[in-house]
Amino acid sequence: MIKTPLCDLLNIEYPIIQGGMAWVADASLASAVANAGGLGLISAMNADADWLRSEIRKARTMTDRPFGVNIMLMSPFADEVAKVVVDEGIGIVTTGAGSPLKYMPAWIGAGIKVLPVIPSTGIARRMEKGGACAVIAEGGESGGHVGELTTMALVPQVCDAVSIPVVAAGGIADGRGIAASFMLGACGVQVGTRFLVAEECTIHRNYKDKIIKAKDISTIATGKRLGHPVRCLKTPFSREFFRKEYDPSVSDEDLEALGAGALRLAVQEGDEKRGCFMAGQAAAMVTKEQPVKEIIKEMFSEAEALLGGAGKWVS
User: Fold this and answer.
1) Which of 156, 211, 240, 303 qualifies as a FRET site for 103, CA 20 to 30 Å off?
2) How many helices (H) and strands (E) does the chain have?
3) Are the CB atoms for 244 and 196 separated by under 8 Å?
4) How confident is the model at residue 313 (pLDDT cuts 50, 70, 90)?
């Protein structure tokens, strides 16, 4: 059995956090992961306080186990949802796409455990000083917003830089990735793309099918010109965006407009011409749809077998 300090910290059975994927990580997926023994997350994405409050209350009818909320700090409603997690008594918050330092005193004062997603050692140190209970070191292999460093290079450096627990993220979709993360010094993993094909994930059928059919070179990173690159599957939309990104006649404003609402179109409508199907480089390792409980059990059984007596977290 693999048990790490992350399990005790978050009161979970398996040291795994479900990624806070916008338009994907809803009450259905979060509660399924929680019921399976991991930490499920509801993504606050660009939604307002009322939507998040409703989703939190819905999740509580579906599970009696801990789950958290992911707050995307670029959201125009960040101030609102930062207060909702306090008012609703959420115990765990992960953050991305910005610095959570201005919210952390209120969250920590309310007893919330804060786990920021970080792309570098410098930011990891700042989060530790700000009171984070752990950090999620996410490499550029991940889907959605990505940094420059790879998971293999980032995780051990972050483990050396901070004294709080480190969770590895980016490119992890099976037990081999979990085992490798532990050998790099992490005490848990965050997984996103693998959960896209969970039976309890409510995304459009087209999205799931595209993940299952993905190959090793099926993703592309776009948006570097705008300062916030995003990894997604290669589609007519992403190829057009990539082409226009390097067209000097296309303004930044027009490029931003082209991407507006594209993820929602992929998640809710499965629109292959206008939708952005965010996915990590591990998409090619995802081959079938499964219940969340089966996914988690399968991943950790494989990791335990690989680590054997070599893993300090295996007992």
Assistant:
1) 156
2) 13, 11
3) no
4) low
